What does this fold into?
Amino acid sequence: MSSKLLRGTFILTLGTIISKVLGLFYVIPFYAIVGDDGTALYSYSYISYTIFISIATAGVPLAVSKFISKYNALEEYAVGRKLFKSGIAVMLGTGILSFLFMYLTAPMLADVTLSRSTDASDVRPEDVTTVIRAVSFALIIVPFMSLIRGFFQGHQSMGPSAVSQVVEQIVRIAFVLVGAYVVLNVMNGSVVAAVSVATFAAFIGAIGSLAVLVWYWFKRKPHLDKLLEADKGTMDISLKEIYKEILLYAAPFVFVGIANPLFQFIDQITFQRAMASIGQGAQATAAFATLNFQTHKLVIIPVSLATAFSLTLVPSITKAFVENDRTSLRKQLDQTFQVLMYLTVPAAVGLSLLAEPAFTVFYENKELGTEILRIYAPVAILFALFTVTAAILQGINEQRFTILSLLTGLLVKLSLNIPLIKLFETKGAVYATALGYLAAILINLYVIKRFANYRFSFVARRITLIVLFTFLMGAGTLAVYGAVSELLSPAAKASSIVIIVICAAAGSAIYFYLGFRSKLINRLFGDKVDKVKRKLRLPL
It folds into this structure.
């Protein structure tokens, strides 16, 4: 891999990480401003928006990038420019249509979300309609903005995408926090108005991102025009063929991208009614906010890092499969599953053990929040497994089964959600999500076993070892947590931060010590571990 591509990949990864970190920590002041009702309203609109935007744009940057890279390598630069010029109009058109559809169907989405019974909640369907319509404006800009990012990435220019992501997040978050605060505390407005401003921030953030991309376009255009002058001009591909190829590239990413929002949408349309049917309608809004906004934001933390590490191995899986190198394919699959589980399992278990101080730091000390986070955190393992197994299916050219596994998982979730909520209240929704993801993952694993002729026996033994290390880490963390809790209260934010730092340090020390002593970490990360040891002057 060239140094330019490595540098570009690093820049794009860094931009993504910064964007995700910003997207995580803004919830602390936002929750303080709008509370449970506000975050519930925000969730109601954003889940629907995420589904719309995923369908409209998921995979577009990667698909366009892959397409342009392919034809640039053939020195057919005009093909990529042809896609770009026509794509701007197409994506702007689909964006406007998506906006109109979401805006006009907002009342229907609100009605399926909430019951109109008077005792069910302080949040009304009219309120949900308002915030959904506020966020829908972003659909006008985001699709063709994604096309521009893909165009730059196809030219191995990752800076524009990375910078625009970070700028988009900064502008959006600033508008969310300042807007919500001004509406509530300066203008004495309603929570609905404040959240509407907060969701409209997606549109403002997209404008900020687009401004960055336009600036990069004018800055890089002379170089891009020089490439166009060097075009061989031997290929004349019709727009129909271009978009057919783009759709084939993008389709798998769409299904993986909308999986989590669809699971959340099932909660959105069933949770409130199920809670109302067991006499818990008055608590439904606060409980939904706790489930699908507050705890979900924290549960995603262990998923992001582990998935990023694991997915870097997928191109190697694709190469081995195409070359029919079964030995290399098996090794790459072994490595991928082990890295994923080695990083995700302890992080998810640690978050579960430290649920009370973690929830207190981000929001407040709340019994329901602690209870839900404790059982929801381990589901992060399933989120990560689904993402990685779906990527592997693409690597072995069996991405069609991703649709089957996702639909099966959604059917399990839809079938069990209401019965489990009636039995276990808010926890029931978590159990239904876990069972739905488990069903989808089992199908993906079966397909991998059959079509890649892969045996899971070796990985199963390694995962057993990882689970043992995690158990020992958990026992040590609990002991430290018990001792520290005698001196510091997890009910206060400041002391909760100290508790998390001490317990996380103790747990990490135990876990990585076991990994070093058993040489497991060396087998997973190879030479990188030895380099770290040399820098820290540790014995090899």
